[in-house]
Design a protein that fits this description.
Elements lengths: L9 H13 L13 E4 L14 E4 L6 H8 L1 H7 L16 E5 L2 E7 L5 E4 L9
Antiparallel strand pairs: 1-2, 3-4, 4-5
Length: 127
C-alpha cells in the first residue's frame, strides 16, 4: 500500500512557495536560516496563505526577525513587512523590503514565488 501524498492545502502550497522563493534564508536579514512564515496582512483576510502575503523568516513569533516584526509594528509598515488590515491594499500591491544578495531592496511579491524590484517602498521609503 502506497502512502498518501501530502495534501495540497493553501497553507502547504503557500509555505512551499515562500520557502522556494527565500532559498531557506531569512528574507529580512539575509543571514539566518528561515524557519517560520510571517503573514504581512493578518490571517483574518480572505486568503492569508497566498505567497505574496508571506515572508519566510528566521526565529519564531517572539525571536529572530519574526519576533522583531511581530513586536515592533510601526517601522514594519514602512518596510512592507506588515500591512494594515484596515487598508484596501492587497499584499501583491505593497512593496516589501527584502535582503537580496546581502543588500536591502524593495520588491513586489507575486503569488507564484516571483519578486519584481521597485524603486521605493510604501509611501516612498527608499531602501
Amino acid at each position: 500500500m502506497n502512502p498518501q501524498p501530502p495534501r495540497r492545502t493553501p497553507e502547504f502550497v503557500g509555505r512551499m512557495i515562500a520557502a522556494e522563493r527565500s532559498g531557506l534564508v531569512c528574507e529580512v536579514c539575509g543571514r539566518a536560516r528561515a524557519t517560520n512564515v510571517h503573514h504581512r496582512k493578518g490571517r483574518q483576510i480572505w486568503d492569508p496563505w497566498r505567497p505574496s502575503n508571506l515572508l519566510h523568516l528566521c526565529g519564531s513569533g517572539t525571536t529572530g526577525c519574526h519576533g522583531a516584526i511581530t513586536e515592533h509594528r510601526v517601522p514594519d509598515y514602512e518596510r512592507g513587512w506588515s500591512i494594515r488590515r484596515t487598508g484596501r491594499a492587497e499584499p501583491e500591491q505593497v512593496p516589501v523590503q527584502v535582503c537580496l544578495f546581502g543588500d536591502p531592496v524593495f520588491v513586489l511579491l507575486d503569488n507564484l514565488g516571483g519578486r519584481t524590484p521597485v524603486p521605493h517602498g510604501p509611501k516612498g521609503v527608499a531602501a
